[in-house]
Specification:
This protein is of the alpha+beta class. The protein contains 17 helices and 18 strands. Strands 1, 2, 3, 4, 5, 6 and 7 form a seven-stranded antiparallel β-sheet that branches. Strands 9-8-18-17-14-13-12 form a seven-stranded antiparallel β-sheet, with helices on both faces. A hairpin with a 2-residue loop joins strand 8 and strand 9. Helix 11 crosses helix 12. The radius of gyration is 33 Å and the shape is flat. The chain starts with 11 loop residues before the first helix and ends with a strand.
Length: 561
């Protein structure tokens, strides 16, 4: 295997900078010319070998591993163990002095030294094996990286290990595969990928050969390394490999971080400094006092060593190790792997955990908990049997909000669940939209039939740049005009609106109403729930999407896991 070039070692600041690439912008002819490849025959074996020699393997550079013997020595001699070793050495020194001075020296210091040594070694070995076991499990996760890829070389389709792919290779990806490298899409047939690990978009993203955005992360003609193909098939040209991929840069940033000491390590280090200072001070003080009182200097030295050793808490290391290990085992029974024993205490002292990934710490199930309309925060019934406190679903503000929530929503119930309670039904779609779908189903009664009667004409799906979703519908209420409905981040919705719907009346959205909205938004956000804004607009014959500043209604729906 050819080694990675030394130039692969990146500066952390360079990794943080926005990458300027044009491989998603240039024409396909220019792309093929740049990488000296052919869309039908692919690379020649000679060119592929040359690229592999130049760029190295298509794999992420792993962080430097600490040798096992170094890990073992850190467990045996690191931190508080070093103080115990010092105490053991002093005990052996004291016993040696007594053995040289007396024909039958007392064995107290010898026994204490042996006990200290045994305790330190046993606890060190115990900690090492516990962490080694966790590390072996973590290393097994490496199998998540793509192992094989179907590429075209010299006109033949070959299945090779993904790590041997090079820039310019023509690869084929199908449903269920992991994308083996960053690729420029050449052909696509209903091809969708899961970009959640990169952009946070929970829904599969369509990939096509068309260049649609300046930003490489937003354009549709690039599929990224280690993302999942969830639908369709595609053919693409490899434009980045290994550490040069978007995922590689993220990995480089993560591996370049300095983790620092854990809170318990800092506390133990501080405790060692205090104990050492106190022990040395008392020992030296009594040594001087003994010497002044006329004791022999050997007796004074033994007295000095005895006081220092007496101030060492011999059982603390074993106690801390056992407590952390027992806690780690209890967490393992709850499917929580502890990689480092000291992390147990860190988790125990955590007062707040912030996570933006639904399903990481929750069940990936969301329900509508609160709503703001008609200038009031309404509380929804979140109990599964609908026996809790609810709100008046006949209010004019709710009826308007309900219509938008039904139509501006792509989630659908899975079939054959008529006998399952609404809140327990399985849904095809995003967790947020699933929560809104269930809420409106409880209120309206037949969401899917309502959507069929109010046919969707066109749609702008949600993306991480716009932070809103728009759809246009033909309504069944007798109004010949199309209805535009929109939902998204409350601040984005607010800036698009000029009026607000309150108690069945359309009012001008002045600064006072904006302040009320912001207050409600902050109150709902303070509950730790996800907030969405909703609005609508009736389009006349001359209206375009640029008229969105005339939308009529704004409200927020609150979701929680």
């Amino acid at each position: 295997m050819p080694p990675k070039k030394g130039g692969k070692e990146r500066n952390l600041e360079n990794l943080k900078k926005e990458v300027e690439v044009d491989t998603h912008k240039i024409s396909l002819q220019e792309l093929f010319k740049r990488y000296q490849t052919d869309p039908v025959r692919g690379l020649t074996p000679a060119k592929a070998a040359a690229n592999l020699e130049r760029d190295g393997l298509n794999a992420l550079t792993p962080p430097k591993k600490v040798p096992e013997w170094v890990k073992f020595l850190k467990c045996v001699f690191g931190g508080f163990a070093l103080l115990l070793w010092t105490g053991a050495v002093l005990c052996f020194v004291a016993y040696t002095i007594q053995a040289l001075s007396f024909e039958e020296p007392p064995d107290d210091n010898l026994y204490l030294g042996v006990v200290l040594t045994t305790v330190v070694i046993l606890t060190g070995v115990f900690s090492y094996f516990q962490e080694a076991k966790s590390n072996s499990i973590m290393e097994s996760f490496g199998s998540m990286v793509p192992q094989y890829a179907l590429c075209i070389r010299d006109g033949e389709k070959l299945t090779i290990e993904a790590q041997y792919l090079v820039v310019g290779d023509i690869v084929e990806v199908k449903f269920g595969d992991r994308v083996p490298a960053d690729i420029r899409i050449l052909e696509a047939r209903s091809f969708k990928v899961d970009n959640a690990s990169l952009t946070g978009e929970s829904e599969p993203q369509q990939r096509t050969p068309d260049y649609t955005h300046e930003n490489q992360l937003e354009t549709k003609n690039v599929a990224f390394f280690s993302t999942n193909a969830v639908e369709g098939t595609a053919t693409g040209c490899v434009i980045s490999c290994g550490d040069d991929t978007v995922m590689g840069r993220i990995a480089g940033l993560a591996s370049g971080l300095d983790t620092g000491d854990t809170p318990i390590a800092k506390e133990i280090h501080h405790f060692i400094n205090i104990i050492t200072g106190v022990a040395v001070f008392l020992g030296v003080t009594f040594f001087i006092v003994a010497f002044v009182l006329g004791y022999h200097w050997l007796d004074a030295v033994i007295f000095l060593i005895g006081i220092i050793v007496a101030n060492v808490p011999e059982g603390l290391l074993a106690t801390v190790t056992v407590c952390l290990t027992l806690t780690a085992k209890r967490m393992a029974q709850k499917n929580c792997l502890v990689k480092n024993l000291e992390a147990v205490e860190t988790l125990g002292s955590t007062s707040c955990i912030c996570s933006d990934k639904t399903g990481t710490l929750t069940q990936n199930r969301m329900t509508v908990a609160h709503m703001w309309f008609d200038n009031q925060i309404q509380e929804a019934d979140t109990t599964e049997n609908q026996t809790g406190k609810g709100f008046d679903k006949n209010q004019k503000g709710w009826k308007s909000l309900e219509r938008i929530a039904i139509l501006c929503n792509r989630a659908e119930f899975k079939p054959n669940q008529e006998n399952v309670s609404i809140l327990k039904r399985d849904v095809l779609g995003d967790a947020s939209e699933a929560g809104i779908l269930k809420c409106t189903e409880l209120s309206n009664g037949n969401v899917m039939d309502y959507r069929r009667r109010n046919k969707k004409v066109c749609e702008v799906p949600f993306n991480s740049t716009n932070k809103f979703q728009v759809s246009i519908h033909i309504t069944d209420d007798g109004d010949p005009r199309h209805l535009l409905v929109m939902k998204g981040a409350p601040e984005r919705i607010l800036e698009k609106c000029s009026t607000i719907w309150v108690d069945g009346k359309e009012l001008r959205l002045d600064n006072e109403w904006k302040d009320r909205f912001e207050t409600a938004y902050m109150d709902l956000g303070g509950l730790g729930e996800r907030v969405l804004g909703f609005c609508e607009y009736r389009l006349d014959e001359k209206s375009t999407l640029l008229d969105s500043h005339l939308m009529l209604m704004i409200s927020t729906s609150q979701l929680k896991a």
